[in-house]
Specification:
470 residues, alpha/beta, Enolase-like, domain 1, 7-stranded mixed beta sheet, 5-stranded antiparallel beta sheet, 15 helices, 21 strands
């Protein structure tokens, strides 16, 4: 009864995808999760955060309605109602996932926390379970910095930021990444005074400078304060207020706030798994895997946040399906993970979305590129939509010799949706010349993509003419 073909540890997006794939192909699967079921994306990530962001986005649109000739006397956010809507939608998403788990063919849910006994067995709540193969998909948890006084004063992570019962009057955000930016802007738009501490010189430290500067300008325009080269040194409590001291250079700046929001990345959930007993090696707190998602023990696979590199739901599902496919096919015919095209997006307003390499990455890897860029402020459809749609740009990177598109960045309205055309273009190794020739509806936001492609094509012609002259 406690013997399975495959045991999947973790029932989030990756684990569920693996179990469903394997069970659907007739494998007997044990799916281990301590609960609550649903996974990070549904319970504490993508779905609740995007639900909240929609409320603040519409609020901002209403505030700017006078530009469109619409007179709105007043608009105020109803914070409890916003949070109630989030709770209702998440419950629906969770119920749907739970139903899927219970109805998945050949999948048995095992409730509890798994611990490896050896490479072929785990223990869950005192019971032993055995399998020929295992898939580790245990997800991740917020990283908490070691700042004196922080734990004593109290703080929130993204988990709590999605479920606050009262709107803070002031908040300091530690971090300048995706979660910090999305939820920081959400609270700022609802009326919280938000101050963001960024360790590097800019937000999104891995992105190109024009992306950093463009998004920073939009956030500051809305009243958010961004402090570069700032780190938290200590926290105190006085008169019911939290006082965080930010170290900037050689000086300390006291920030008196109602709430401290820690958004400094995530770490894999590997504690308690007893991986050494299974022969699974970790590096820097992550599980290294090969192209088939196998760990150092070839009978044990890993997928999702515990692997690292990409803390993205669509990548976690992709990796889980790669692992399941290899278990089903064996060495012959199984596909390998290919990360040439890994899109990601930040659902700030404006959105930022990217696929492929950036200029920063191209330079660091010694890859020659030619770029094309076009501002939304010069696009007719964006002008029709109003000033909120005129922020940002589209930038394409291509190979100078072939014209193949190697990367794309969109900072602007609906960027997370517009990027998909470029994902498809890169999948089929489309060139800038071919992309610019594809008819696009006018006037649309999507037609902006043809303009940087045209710029690249012109630069390539100039380059070719120069070569011929030489």
């Amino acid at each position: 009864m406690n013997r399975f073909d495959v045991i999947v540890i973790g029932a989030g997006s990756a684990g569920y995808a693996a179990a469903r794939t394997l069970g659907g192909r007739g494998r007997k699967v044990g799916l281990v999760d301590k609960g609550p079921l649903g996974g990070l994306c549904i319970l504490k990530g993508c779905m609740p955060s995007k639900t909240l962001l929609r409320s603040s986005e519409v609020l901002q649109l209403i505030r700017e309605a006078d530009e469109l000739g619409l007179r709105v006397s007043s608009v105020e956010p109803d914070f409890p109602a916003i949070m109630a809507r989030r709770k209702l939608l998440v419950k629906g998403f969770q119920d749907y996932r739970v139903e899927g788990i219970h109805n998945a063919p050949n999948v048995a849910l095992i409730t509890g926390t798994a611990r490896f006994l050896d490479s072929g067995a785990i223990e869950v709540e005192g019971a032993r379970y055995e399998a020929d193969r295992f898939i580790i998909a245990t997800g991740s948890a917020p990283t908490i910095p070691d700042v004196p006084g922080l734990r004593e004063a109290g703080f929130i992570t993204s988990d709590e930021a999605l479920e606050l019962s009262e709107l803070p009057r002031s908040m300091v955000v530690l971090g300048g990444g995706v979660v910090a930016l999305e939820l920081g802007q959400f609270y700022a738009r609802l009326g919280t005074k938000v101050t963001m501490l960024v360790r590097s010189g800019h937000i999104l430290s891995q992105e190109d400078e024009d992306v950093q500067a463009g998004l920073e300008a939009c956030l500051r325009e809305e009243g958010m304060e961004i402090l570069p080269y700032a780190t938290p040194s200590r926290v105190e409590v006085a008169n019911g207020k939290k006082i965080l001291y930010a170290k900037i250079g050689e000086s300390e700046m006291p920030l008196e706030v109602d709430e401290i929001f820690v958004a400094m990345g995530r770490r894999p959930n590997l504690e308690g798994l007893n991986l050494p007993a299974a022969g699974v090696v970790t590096e820097r707190g992550l599980i290294p895997v090969d192209a088939h998602m196998r760990t150092s023990n070839s009978t044990i696979y890993a997928a999702g946040d515990c692997v690292g590199d990409y803390n993205l739901v669509h990548v976690a599902i992709y990796q889980a399906e790669i692992a399941a496919g290899h278990i089903l096919a064996g060495e012959g015919g199984a596909r390998e993970a290919d990360y040439r095209i890994v899109p990601y997006a930040i659902f700030t307003d404006p959105n930022f979305a990217r696929v492929g390499i950036s200029e920063r990455e191209a330079e660091s890897r010694g890859i020659a590129v030619v770029t094309g860029k076009y501002e939304f402020a010069e696009l007719g459809k964006a002008e029709c939509m109003g000033k909120s749609a005129m922020k940002g740009f589209v930038k394409l990177l291509a190979c100078p010799d072939t014209g193949e598109i190697l990367g794309a960045q969109i900072l602007g309205p609906e960027g997370a949706d517009l990027i998909h055309e470029l994902i498809v273009a890169m999948e089929f190794r489309c060139t800038a010349e071919r992309l610019m020739a594809i008819p696009h509806l006018h006037p649309t936001l999507a037609e902006i993509i043809t303009y940087p492609a045209e710029e690249i094509a012109e630069k390539r012609l100039e380059r070719l003419a120069h070569r011929e002259e030489v």
